[in-house]
Amino acid sequence: MNESVTFRKIIHIDMDAFYASVEQMDNPELRGKPIAVGGSEARGVVAAASYEARKFGVRSALSGVKAKRNCPDLIFVRPRFDRYKEISKKIHRIFHDYTDLIEPLSLDEAYLDVTQNKKGNPSASLLAQEIRDRIFTEIGLTASAGISVNKFVAKIASDYHKPNGQKTVGPEEVIPFLEALPIRKFYGVGKVTTEKMYQLGIFTGADLKLKSEEFLEKHFGKSGRYYYHVVRGIHNSEVKSQRIAKSVAAEHTFESNLSSEIFMLEQLEKIAQQLEKRLQRHKVAGKTVTLKIKYSDFSLQTRSKTLPYFVADKSLILETVKELLYQERMKDSVRLLGISLSNLNTDSERKKAVAVQLKFNF
């Protein structure tokens, strides 16, 4: 990359084990111990796990039963989402001291565009360090950061030195960084896609870069074009601080009407997976889960539940959908099912980012 190209300076801040870290901060007896926020030994799923618990394979969306099996000493803690939201607001107040171009992905992570910033500091790396220092000093929590020319690389970089670290990938380092990166580390490449890439001989960014755009589109559809560009450091999505949509949804109309709730659950799992992908694409999460049911007589029914926390994970969405499905008996066979997520974690207003052409001082 050369200096005549328009570059942005993007910081991705990711709090370290946020929910669990808040619980350990507020309750000294939990510090240094494996804890799971949410779930229980008998039911439910884990919303977050401390680093002590992660060593035993305890992760978010894991069932409480399996989590306890993996880590017998695991301590389950009831979520306090009002508290997490309160802390998140304090973190965002720190962000706003540096820039108003902030795109929250959830309570615990956000993109910041500091190409032009309130401190007039040309070094995005120094700004990220200062922000992390302030979060630790003023709030008591650690955060990790990734700094680069676009959101894609910054997101990957923030995971590089976790917890409590940061990594900068400057303009001239982007291509070598991506070429050396294991394909499973690429943001947007999940387990299924990773396995498919392995079968095609794609194990690193360098392997991916050898494939033509036509080859990738043939094997991965529209996503192939995305993979072709991001491995070349091309990702022009701006940091967006305004609301994108009020809800995200997925639905399916069936060729034959469904009368068995078992078959409905099978279809709802597929719909939830499709919804998860859309949420990832829009980089949003939501609190209100709605199940849409259209019966064979074309009458429409919706059942909703608002959760005390934001979700974007298929497993968490499906757990709520099952509850809604069994809320009452079906009045007829079903021809359409849909799931939507609303009450999203996006801002109501957004200021448009201005890309500035300048020489980078990372």
Automatic annotation (TrEMBL):
Belongs to the DNA polymerase type-Y family. NCBIfam families: PRK02406.1, PRK14133.1. Pfam families: IMS (PF00817), IMS_C (PF11799), IMS_HHH (PF11798). Coiled coil: none annotated. Monomer. This is DNA polymerase IV. It comes from Flavobacterium agrisoli. One of its GO terms (cellular component) is cytosol. It is an enzyme of class 2 (transferase). The active site is at 109. It is found in: Cytoplasm.
